[in-house]
Amino acid sequence: MAESRSSPGKRVRVMLPLRLGPYDYAVPEALDLAAGDFVRVPLGPRTETGVVWDEPPDPAFEPSRLKPVRGKLDAPAMRAPLRGFVDWVARYTLSPPGTVLRMAMSVPAALEPPKPKRAVALAAGAPDPELDEPGVLTPARRRVLREAMAGARPPGELARAAGVGAAVVKGLVDKGWLEPIDLPADFGAPPSRAPVLADLNPDQRAAADALLEKCGAGFSTTLLDGVTGSGKTEVYFEAVAATLAAGKQALVLLPEIAMSAQWLARFEERFGAPPVAWHSELPGHLRARVWRQIAEGRARTVVGARSALFLPFRDLGLVVVDEEHEQAFKQEDGTIYHARDMAVVRARFEAVPVVLASATPSLETLANVERGRYGRVELPARHGGATLPRVAAIDLRKTPPPRGRFLSPPLRAALADALEAGEQAMLFLNRRGYAPLTLCRACGHRLQCPRCTAWLVEHRLHGRLQCHHCGYAAPLPRQCPSCTAEDSFVACGPGVERVAEEAQALFPDAKIAVMTSDTVAGPAAAAEFVRAMAAREIDILVGTQIVAKGHHFPLLTLVGIVDADIGLAGGDLRAGERSWQLLHQVAGRAGRAERPGRVLLQTHMPEHPVMKALVAGDRARFLAAEREDRRKRNWPPFGRLAALVLSGEDEALVDRIAKRLGATAPRGAGVEVLGPAPAAMAILRGRHRRRLLVKATREVDLQGVLRDWLAQTQIPSAVRLAVDIDPYSFL
Ligand code: ADP
Ligand code: ZN
Description:
Blueprint: E1 11-15, E2 23-26, E3 38-43, E4 46-52, E5 71-72, H1 80-93, H2 97-104, E6 118-122, H3 139-148, H4 155-162, H5 166-175, E7 178-182, H6 202-214, E8 220-226, H7 232-245, E9 249-253, H8 261-271, E10 276-278, H9 284-295, E11 301-304, E12 316-322, E13 330-331, E14 337-338, H10 339-350, E15 353-358, H11 363-370, E16 375-379, E17 390-395, H12 409-420, E18 424-428, E19 437-440, E20 457-459, E21 464-466, E22 473-474, E23 489-492, H13 496-506, E24 512-515, H14 523-534, E25 540-543, E26 556-561, H15 575-587, E27 598-603, H16 609-616, H17 619-633, E28 639-648, H18 651-663, E29 671-684, E30 687-697, H19 702-711, E31 720-725
Helix pairs in contact: 1-2, 1-10, 3-4, 4-5, 6-7, 15-16
């Protein structure tokens, strides 16, 4: 893409990070602008920051009405591949390009010239805050020093963390116990030493060589398809090492960056420097610096969740999407996109290879391999001779748990054996809280969220009821709101807390921990769980899908799946695929070292293809059947889907607009529109919802059809229309 230089007196088109625009502006004589430059421009009474865009301005626009660009920011220009990517994502998702641009300039402060950030650090001569010498430290000073041990920080932040006033921190600086420093200028700096060479086994060597061949050779997409524990991470680290050695940047997308403590530690061990972790918990001042250093090419390896896709890499050389099948890569609000698919697009614009890694690749990716669009590299066996765990089903119809309990006799016996042998066990149930439903024993009334079509979930650890969709929380009422009976509520069904309670009652001496997004708030908490597990401070870990994610626990030999059927309920077209992926990943946690692993699935339908595939370890057969089923029904990846969700507080209005869209729906070769119908989640956060589903064959220009259709109906501002291309959620 040529950078079109503007000559004085000319005009430019500027994209703003807003729903509106782009707009044309006059370029003042003294200013020399090129596409990608960040500029300040007037918009109504305000001044906004935007980017000089590639499209030519409208030559017919009345010059006297054209406002001038106010100035150019001293920041690295947005490069052509990123601008192209922004436009492409906007067209694909039917979003205003400005809202996509907003994701690519999410840190406005980063566009300001960087100021050195003053911080304070623990000085060498400071007293040990844990030492209990009377008279040396006041409690406030002790707290500050304790906090300072965790690392250098701006003085204000340190004072806040220690819960003291600024004067206490200043006092410690004056005493010489804290010293002022500049915060490190570089994040993800080039490593201090050469990467440790991995001693790859022959399969891994072959896989790594295949990836290395792609590095530096332009755009390509490769599926790294290997069973759990086969060393996929080791293998793609080779490609990262080669990319860094070539002086380029690497981007690794992980589904849940907060859960990635082990990954980060492994990276640092291998490369001698931590990568830049891009996530929502990054404090503001660090965000701006990191963003800028990525734009300047100084931050070299970036690991992040979805949003890292929109970072301004200066010299990207490789993209990796780990656990590519994960639904967490689907961004469900704002601009709705799938980060795995968009990673491939970004790599194409940057002309670099992208590696998709998984032990349970998505049908979408497998279909692309079949079509020859993606390459495939395989790792068929676990590293170091570890065997894949034995999987057996427990038929709950034949050996049910005792009434009101959830662990069946065979699972109880297996837990007892594992504990006896000094090994660790994991109980998996993909349900947070104590019980998914609470009802009144007297009248049958069910406690429901006042704002959503959803039951309230009891969380005993926090002593309250919660809606998992909108965050509503309330204490358990003493009186039934329907029949006024007192203390009449009973918990129905299991959540992880209830399973932990049952396990504790069975094994009073066992150390039991619950790992869910409620108990693991961030990277530090996740790291603590992993450490406690590795140090054998936990005998039985009870958890939700959070435990399925890439952790490596050498002493874990037993995995019990409390309810293997949960994910199969409901009409989601990917229910089978997703259940299989999740359960297979959970099963993969067992027996990753010398001791063999064992997995027990509690199910009411051992004859279901998902259960049979898990027990037989027959992935190929399951995928072939699933694929045939999708092909017959023309579901993705063989046909295309788009969902339209209309929502608003005024139900009648939402309904009317939905019907109007339904009436003008496109009909014709290869296109079918289902609905409108109330969404499964008919009310969410107090907004009424109607859905339409567009099914099309792969030959249809789905976006074009949608654009023409939606242009015919004016949507009032009280109704929101969300367009979800390739939907994964059908709620
Ligand atoms: P995957 O990502 O396929 O699940 P990992 O890369 O996490 O597999 O590897 C599983 C475990 O085996 C890790 O603890 C890793 O350090 C170890 N491992 C894999 N390959 C090797 C190797 N070549 N040498 C030593 N350890 C290895
Ligand atoms: Zn709710």
